[in-house]
Amino acid sequence: MQYNPSGSRGYLWITLGIDTTYAPWTQYKAISKEIEEMYGTLDTNTTLSLLQNVYLGKTNIMFRMILTKHTQTGRQWVACPKTGEIHICFSTQGNEAYENTIHTFNLYDLLEQSPP
Has this prediction a pTM greater than 0.70? Predict the structure, then answer.
């Protein structure tokens, strides 16, 4: 038998505080589904956009409903070690990371620069 906290029982249990695994399970399923749908087209740009769309509830409304009560997103980031490209966004007072601007830089370019 596989462990699966999804469905109405999982939602009820998280609402009642009995079991908190429904939130990460729903998060995993929502992100996995989007990755599968975009497989072959993902790069550093599209991957962070994928995460933002999932967290904004554009792909799974149940995850969005749970997210607002049971998780905090201080940062989201994606990096490509081969090119050094990094995309990152941070939370601010009143906004989660997925609601804020994405900052882009190249790690290898930064390593070549002299400190100020």
Answer: no
**Structure-token pair, residue 70:** 């049971």
94 is a domain residue: yes
- Please tell me the distance from the alpha carbon of residue 88 to that of residue 79, in angstroms, as a whole number: 9
Looking at the 3D structure of the chain, how many domains does it have? 1
Q: Is residue 2 part of a domain?
A: no
User: pLDDT (tens digit, 9 = 90+) per residue, 46-56?
Assistant: 898 888 888 88
Could you report the average pLDDT of every consecutive run of 10 residues in the chain (116 residues)?
A: 65 72 80 92 88 84 70 83 92 87 93 85
Give the integer Cα–Cα distance in Å for 82 and 92: 30
Q: What amino acid occupies position 78?
A: V
Largest Cα separation within the chain, whole Å, is 58
Domain that holds residue 70: 7-112
